[in-house]
Structure formats: C-alpha cells, structure tokens
Amino acid sequence: MMAFTPTPSQNEAITCIDRHVAVTAGAGSGKTRVLVERYLNLLNKGIEVEDIVAITFTKKAAQEMKDRLRSVRPDLIESLEQAQISTIHSLCQRIIHEHPLQAGIDPRFRVAEEWESSVLLTEAFEDSVEGQEIPEELGSAGDVVELGISIYEKMASKGDLDFARFITQEKSLSEFPLLQLKSQVEEALQLQPSTNTQKLALEGLQMEWPSIYGKLNHFDDDLRLEALELLMDFVKKIRGKLADEILPLRELIGFAEQGIYSNKGAMNISFLAGILVGAQKLYEKRKKSLGILDFNDLEQIAYELLQKPEVKEDYAFAHLMVDEFQDTNPLQKRIVDALVSDKTILFVVGDPKQSIYRFRGADVGVFVQTKEEIEDTGKNIFLEQNFRSRPELIEFVNEFFQRLMEDDLIGYEASIAHKERAKDPCVKILKTYTDDLPANESRILEAEQIALKIRQLVDEEGFRYKDISLLFRAMTNVHIYEKALKVVGVPYVNLSGRGFYSKQEIQDILNYFRWLEDAGDEVSKMAVLRSPFYLISDQGLFWLKQDRIHKLTGKERKALERARRDYEYLTELARFSPAPYVITSLLERTKYLESTFRLPFGPQKVANVEKLLEQSWDLFALDFYSLPEQLRFLRAMVQDAPKEGEALLDAEHADVVVLRTIHGAKGLEFPVVFLPDTNGDLLRGQRGDVLYHPDFGLTYRNMDSYEALKEQESAEEISEAKRLLYVALTRAEERFYWCAREGKAGGVSWWSWLQEHLDELPSDLYGVEQGDLPGIEPVDNENEVSLLETVTYDPLPPEYNQVSFSVTSLMNYVRCPRYYYLRYILGVPDRIDVVSAGSEKKDSPSINALQRGNIVHRVCEQIKNPEELPELVQYAATMEGVQLEQRQREQLEEIIMPYLNSEFFSRIKEKQNDWDIFREKEFIIPVENYLINGLVDQVFVGKDGLEVVDFKSNWISAQQVQTVGESYEAQLRIYAWAMVKEFGKPTISSKAYFLIPNKLYDLDDSFLDTEQTESWIREICTKIINGATQGVEAFPITLDCTHCGQNSYCGNSGVLGKNKSVT
Questions:
Q1: Are 443 and 437 within 8 A, CB to CB?
Q2: Domain with 894 in it: what CATH number?
Q3: Stretches in the chain below the pLDDT threshold 70
Q4: How far apart (Å, rounded) are the C-alpha atoms in residues 752 and 757?
Q5: pLDDT digit string (tens) for 277-310?
Q6: CATH classification of the domain holding 678
Q7: Is residue 933 within 8 Å of 807, Cβ to Cβ?
Q8: Residue-range definition of the domain harbouring residue 874
Q9: CA-CA distance, 56 to 762, in Å (whole number)?
C-alpha cells in the first residue's frame, strides 16, 4: 500500500482519541482509510484489540477494513484475529450468543434468510386473517394480508412493534352529536329569512328535515353521512348576514362528519391491529420452533440485554467506532448509546447528504442529533477533500446542491477537489426530444440514445463497457433500457435487485411447474410448448387449440410427443420426489439449458436458471420439500419480485455495462455514470387508506391526522430524493451523463430541479448534448426462439478477482469433485441421514452422535486445566442446546479423560517458555487471484518451528485412524502451509487428533513443502474455476461414495447423468 499522508482534517479525525468525535465525511473523502488509520493509532497508543469495536454498514465493508489493517500492519495479524469489526447485526448476534440464558433464546439459533422470514411472515398473516370478518373498506383477505405485511415491515423498521395500542374499544369512540344537531336545526328553522334564496333554503330544510333526522337517528354510518351531506347542501344556500347565525350548525355538521370518519378509521385500524397482533404471535412462534431470529429480533433482543447491568459490563469497550452513521435507525442508536459507558470514547463517521435508507428505518435526524450531543464536550470534524472525482464535476455538485439543499435540515457543506482538472465539463446533459409522447414511449427514445452513446464512448473514446454504470432511482422501467442495450448490442447485466422472477427463462420453468400442478391450466401449458422447452410456433399452437394436430410440422409433432412423455414422467416424479430433483430432471430431459444458452444473452439466462435451482435446494433444506410447497413460496416471491436480482455471472469482473439502483451503488465509484429517467415523478411515497409514521402512528383516510401525515411523508421523501441525487452524481470519477427528455412537462422531478437552477450555474461546468445519434436497425429479439439455429453467443470470459475458497471446500474437492460441484456450486444440501465415517447411532432421546462429537470437540479446544472439565462439559452442552442427564455427563467425561491424561495435553497444562499456543487460529491468505480461508484448532509456535493440530470428533476405532486420517490429508496440508505464511516459521508437523480413540494421525512430511503446496492449491482453484464454466462433466465422481452426503443426488443416482468413471 502506498504511503498515506493525511489531510489536516483527516489527521484530526485519526488522532483525536481523548473525547467523542463526530466526523462528517463528504463523498470520496477517504473515510475508510481514516477509520483504518484511527484504529491503528489506537493500537499504537497501547489500546488492546479487545477494547476496540468498529461497526460497519455491511459485511463487505467489515472485511475490507480487516484486509486493509492486515496489509498495512502484517505484524499485527495475530492480534487482529480477535478484532470486533463487524456489522451492528453481527455484534448483536454475538451479544445474544454469549447470553442465551438471559435472552431466553435457544443457543443454537441462526439468523433467518430474508426470503425465509418473508415466507414465514406471509404465512402468519394468512393464518391470522383466515376466518375473520373483514370490514368492507379493507377489501379482500388477500388485500388485508398485503396491507398487514406492509404495515408490519414499516413499523418493525422503526423498532415499533406495539400493535396492541391501536386496538380501540367501542366506548372510546366519539359519540355522534344527534341531539345537538336536532337542536341547532330547530333553531335555524326559527330564523327569519331576508332574501328569497334564504327563504327557499329554509323551506326546503323544513320539508326535508323529518327524512334527514330519520337517517341521522340510524346507526348506519353511510346513511348518516348521506343525511349530513344533504343537510350541508341546505345550509350552504343560506348566505348573507343569516349565514353568521347558522355558522354553529355548519361547524357542527363538519364535526359530525369528521367524527364518523374518525370512528370508521379507528375501527378499521383496530381490526388491522388485531390482525397484526395475531400474526406477530404466530410469526414469533414459528421462528422459535425453527430456532431462527430475523434482523429486527437481533436489534431488539441485544438492546434489551444491554439494559441488564451484568450483561452491559461484559461490553465495556474503551473505543467504539461506527461507520455510515447517517443510515442508523433510532433503535440502533439506542444500542450504540447503551454500549457507551463513562469510559468509552465514541467515534461516529457518516455523511447526512448520503442518508438514503429511510425505507429500512434509517433516520438522518439520528446523525444530526448525535452531532449536537457531541458538540458540547467532543469535536465535530468535516472531511472536505474529494479524492474521487474531477474538479469540474465537484464544482458542479457544489454549485447545484448548495442551492438545492439550502433549506434542508442538514444543509450543505461543499467539498474540495484533489484530482487534476479535466479541462472540459465533466457533467453532460444528454437531452432527448420526445415531443408530447406518453411517458413510456418517450423513455424508449431516451433509452436508445443512452445505448448509442455508450457504444460511441467505447468505440470512439477508449472507454470499456465495464467503466460504465447506469444508475436508477427505481427499477420499474428498467426493461425499456435493457431492451435498448440489447438492440444496440451493448453487453450488460442487471444487478439492481429487480426482475429475477420476471425473466423469461424463470417464467418458462414456473409455467412448467403450474402445468404439472394443474393439468387443466391451458395458459401455462401453451406457454411451455412455445418456450425453448419444445419450440412449437404460434401457428402450431393455433392448430393445436383447433385439435388439428396433423397441421403441425413434422418437427412440431415430434416435440409435442416429447412433451407428452415428459409430462407423464415428471407428473409421476413430482408425486414422491423433492422439488429440486424434479427441476433437475426437467432440465435434463428437455435439454433446456443447452437451448437457452444459444439464445442472445444465453450465459446470463443459464446463470439465472441455476440460481433458481439453488434456491430450490435451499428451500428443500428448510423442509419445503414438494413441488406444491415450493410453488407456494415462489408465488409469494413472484409477487415480491422487485427484491430479487439476477444471478451475477461474474458481472462485477466481466467487461459489461452494469445496471443497478443508486442504493446498490452506495460506496462504489465508476469512471462513467449515466442517470436515466430523471423526468420521473419523485413523490412515490405511501399511498392508500392506511398510513404509518412514527410521529403519527397508524392513521386512516379522512381521519384528522391523515393529511398531516401525508404532508410530513412528502416532505421527507423530497428531502431524501435530494440526497439520493447527490449520491448518484458523486459516484462518477470522470464523467456524468444527466439524461433528460424534452417534451411534455411533468411534476416534481430531478430534471425539473436542474431546470430551475441551470441558469444560475456557471456554464463552463456542464455541457449539453442533443440526443440525436442515428439509430441501429434492431435485431428481432421478441421471438427469441426463431434465433436458435442462426445466432450463437459465447459467454464473456470471466475476470476473477480474489475468489474465496474455504479449506473445507478444497478438501471436499480433493475427496470428490462431483461432491464439490453439488455442494458448493449448485448449493445442494447433504442428506440429513448421512453419518460420518465410524459414527455411532443415536442412543438417547436427548443427545446424538453429532451433538456428542461437538461437545467433546468444544471442550478439548477450550480446556486448560482438568478441574475445568465438569463446567466446560455443561457449557458445551448448553451451547449445543442439550440438557444432559448424569449418565451422559459421566460418559462424556470418560471420553475426554484419555485426552487430559495424554502427553499431548501435558504440553498445554505445563507452563513452558519455548513455545506459545494459538487456539482457533483464523486465516485468510491470498494465492494469486484466490483467497484461502480457514480455522486451525491449535498451533504450537516454538523457536524451531510450528506444530499444527486439528481436533476430530469422528466416532471411530483406533484401527480406523490411519484410513480416516488420510481423508483429511488435504486439510492438514493446507493448514501446514497457511501457518508458515502466518508465522514465518517452518511447519514441523501437522496432525489430526482423533479424540474418541485418543489417537494422533501425522501428515506425511512430504506434504509439508510450502512452495509445492501453494502450487498445488493454485492448480486446484484454477481447475474449479475452469470447471464451473463447463458444468457437471468437469467434476468427476471418485470411487468411494459410501459415506457421501450427496450420493443420492449425483451421477450414481441418474439425476445428473450416469457415473461413467465407475466400473
């Protein structure tokens, strides 16, 4: 890493460690480097690693920080192994894991995947709504489920799960003012009119009053509203001086109407609150039964634990550093506050101008409040220098946003450029004239000009496709821009988190699922026959619908017969087989992947199908076994499709244009950025009859607080839209294209903001380019099946950059490449009935072989003194979620005692000065473009070299040690190599300690050569990467499949082709 010379403000942020500090870090200001340097400065000042906590926004950011620390100070690698550098959710998870009893949580809990919690939540709401009498205004049961989930997620993101407070009792509703209305009307009827209009109005009221009163006296709200409206019509006709006398009646009518609306709203909200309470109870119950927590649980439980003094004292850190603090929610701030004791120095860094996660509960006011709290006794620092963008671009940003954010709560602090000037405007306004065309037709013209401009940049100006990114505020219309890129021939990938389930290849498979589930589903059947599964033409489908099969071509009749045979086979298969098994058979029988690969953008389509198969295996592992069960989940995901992105296909490394959301680009930078669709309306906030805001709670249309809430929501949405635009502009390094459409005027939009201020900006800071590039004849991609025999596309060559492999995965590849393919590439889970070599069968209802092995392993890793044995056995059992009987405890102690009496353990027990012991030694070591990671149980480091020991809890006999030990050769070999890299000393031995027979297996010395091992690792990783592009045939099966957890799924079962290597 190059020498780092901090700016004065950076240096202040790094070295000010005696008081609380809040750093406002402008875009591209090097805040990550500041965090790293501050951390190193703390270590240099004698602060221990365990006394420092660094909280990052993402796991990726945490890993990058650790990597930077290691690269700057390799001598600190050992101490940094235990560093608490993580996301706030990982820290919360640690707190809960370390205090499961106080939390009342199963110690074996895991954090649910987002899609998994989504399915459970949907099921909870469906069950909560079932059988309920739904108010007419709320629509159908499906509408209530959708609305309930939306409210739950909004409230949960704010840490607000007190739904019961919105349940209204009848007695708390406002009483209808019937008697007051009767009295006021009777007084009005005694008034003396002074004009003919007044006279006619009063006479009409006199005539209609009995009918109006009858409706008012009815308990039906709609009748009362109808009567009040009629009454108001008469009152409005009374003008002049008499109007002042009748004003109390007019106000009373308005009050009565509002009371009815408020009561109706309160009762509808009360109904929803009851649904929310019921769904929450079901959701919590199901999570508990599965042993899972969601991210909201992690925050809430950790916060509650930190309110207990005995827990809080375990986290009395000297320094607490929080990155991206502008995206913190109120509950997370309370967690941070709970971690700050009298002796803790708080350091927060963020940029309020980049606070864009309001939809996740983030509140920019939290950062502003924290700055104010720190201001009195601490220090506020602004990192003003931008190292990312050209000066011309920064100057445009400063000039524009100083005007745009002038009245905002956060204001605007200008950045200063560091790079050399480009000597040309870096902001280009790409204007496409669209006349008065409808919005989507005008987008088509804009999209074409963007695609053509990208081609021009690549063909004429030396940019590569990978230098260019299209950033979108929302992905609703991204398909328009994708189509334009296809037509012009620009390679791209959509990493937006949108559109996976709407892709044609995924729809093809889902249609096949629907047809298998319902033979009478003609729409799905026809879609399948037309797709690359069978390639029957539209004309052929017409003849098929007419039952004139003889009119089909010979090729189509053969395809129809194949479809019939496939359908019969797959229908029968789906009755008894797991869904992923059915999908695999479907793909193989129909050769769908081969057909799809030959389509335009075929590699991306194939990657998407493989992602779907991987999801199916994930669902299978979580007990969504059958096709109907998985279809229920997939239907929910199709409805929620905006959250699921395409498979990556090495997109971040290949030479392709990337489409992503601005949120997805946060923290990233690109040479060239295009911002399409800036004419789009910015006000897209909460709509509908029910709204939520933390300041207002739940409110219903026409209630007093409804309009006030909408105004507040709109103001916050506009404010965040300004920040989102700032983030988009500051992603660009060299050039930014602001794409706008000249034509029909719209509402409030980014383009309207720029138009408002454009004349005030220095003209040398931007250039205007007319979108009039000549178009290219489009290729007909609509009917893609017609291209199968004429167009082929080779996959883009991947450019891998630090692909990570675990030691366990490499060991499994060496054991069996086919196992690796199934487990790590397709993500197929192991069969749950498979037991490792020599394992004993379950002999107790409360403890099985796996649990027993884990307990023994954990105790032997931790124990330093034999007197600790009973306590550690109990602790390890608790961590496994096992309640031990006396006999089982004695059995475990008997198993461990030979180890404690061994010569090996005596080295640990007896204090010696010529070696040190490192337990659970983690490592991440680069080998060219690969990262190898793992964890060694124990490493003895002496003056002459290293001894590596890894504990094994396999239930085997002493006679099996040699055979089973050989299966761990690859792991022991990599461990030996890794420890040489970590400690810079030779490895003397690498051993597997089999605890059950109390025997050691020694790795042969011939495997301890570091250079040979590194070359061997490189060769294995390269084989895996190359094989991944070829498919299953590049991963052959080994001879011994006896104890393999995949042998019912691999080639030997016939699912992925027969095993040709076994004779």
A1: no
A2: 3.90.320.10
A3: 1-3, 169-173, 496-502, 600-601, 621-623, 632, 635-653, 684-687, 745, 776-802, 826-850, 879-881, 908-914, 1029, 1031, 1039-1063
A4: 9
A5: 999 999 999 888 888 999 999 999 999 999 999 9
A6: 3.40.50.300
A7: yes
A8: 804-830+847-1034
A9: 38
